[in-house]
Amino acid sequence: MVVVQVDAVARSHVTYIHPGILDPCKRPGELHPGCHPNPKSAPTQANTYNRG
C-alpha cells in the first residue's frame, strides 16, 4: 500500500504576523497610550454604557 500526500508543500519562506501588529500593547518598548500598566490584569470597563 502506497500513501501519497498531495498537499505537502515546503513552506520555507513563510512569514507570520508579529503580535505587536495585531495588539499594540504587545509591542516592545515603553508603555503605549491606551495600554494597561499590568498586561495580565483582567479587562476593565472604560466608560459606562447608556443605551439610547
Automatic annotation (TrEMBL):
Pfam families: RALF. Keywords: Disulfide bond, Hormone, Secreted, Signal. One of its GO terms (cellular component) is extracellular region. The keyword Transmembrane does not apply. Residues 29-52 are annotated as: Disordered. GO terms for biological process: regulation of growth. It is found in: Secreted. Residues 41-52 have a biased composition (Polar residues). GO terms for molecular function: hormone activity. Belongs to the plant rapid alkalinization factor (RALF) family. This is Uncharacterized protein. It comes from Gossypium klotzschianum. The lineage of its organism: Eukaryota, Viridiplantae, Streptophyta, Embryophyta, Tracheophyta.
